[in-house]
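sry for the spam today, last one i promise. struct tokens for design, 160 residues
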């Protein structure tokens, strides 16, 4: 899925319901349309009131969220999407405590969700090579420091 820059209002409009979030997951998982993981046929029917698609040939059902961080989660998809948005908006990220307060959830639940998202982001980036225009922040870490490292000041006396 390509990177899209969107502000808070655009995000809220685009992912305002469970169905909109499911469609986004479906489009990311099957960009050229549904393909059955069992028989590799390219036709399926979305089951009403469920997060599954049934293949028209083999009749097996595939969950839209299977194989993702959302699989078997009781947390609504809209909450997952908000957490991902909050994590990705700041260069330093967001603390678990702050995210828990903003989402109105328990700290441990948000902590576990954030770890799943970070693991998914790490797995995705393992096989990506940088190409094209790459923008990097200027920063310098380390190097020589001035003065003593333990914080004591040095006094020198003048020789007469």
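last one done:
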């Amino acid at each position: 899925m390509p990177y899209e820059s969107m502000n808070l209002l655009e995000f809220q409009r685009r992912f305002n319901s469970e169905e909109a979030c499911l469609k986004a997951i479906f489009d990311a998982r099957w960009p050229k349309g549904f393909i059955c993981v069992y028989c590799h046929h390219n036709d399926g029917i979305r089951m009403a009131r469920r997060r599954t698609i049934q293949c028209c040939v083999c009749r097996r059902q595939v969950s839209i969220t299977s194989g993702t961080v959302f699989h078997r989660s009781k947390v609504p998809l809209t909450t997952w999407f908000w957490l991902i948005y909050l994590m990705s908006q700041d260069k330093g990220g967001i603390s678990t405590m702050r995210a828990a307060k903003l989402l109105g959830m328990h700290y441990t639940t948000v902590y576990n969700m954030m770890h799943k998202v970070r693991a998914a982001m790490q797995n995705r980036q393992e096989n990506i090579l940088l190409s094209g225009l790459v923008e990097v922040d200027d920063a310098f870490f380390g190097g020589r420091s001035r003065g003593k490292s333990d914080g004591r000041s040095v006094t020198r006396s003048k020789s007469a």
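The two ends are 74 Å apart (CA to CA). ok im logging off now
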